[in-house]
Amino acid sequence: MHLRIGTRGSKLALAQSEWVKRKIERRHPDTRVSLVKIKTKGDKILDSPLSKIGGKGLFVKEIEDALLRKNVDLAVHSMKDVPAETPEGLDISVFPEREDPCDAFVSLDYPSLTELPRGASVGTGSLRRSAQLLSMRPDLDIVALRGNVDTRLRKLEEEGLHAVVLAAAGLRRLGLSHRITMTLSPEIFLPAIGQGALGLELRTDDEKVRERLDFLNHEDTATPVRAERALLMTLEGGCQVPIGGFGRLEGRDIILEGLVAELDGSRVIRHRITGEREHPEELGRALAERLLGSGADRILERIYGKEK
Question: In terms of CB atoms within 10 Å, which of 72, 121, 282, 293 comes out highest?
Answer without folding.
Answer: 72
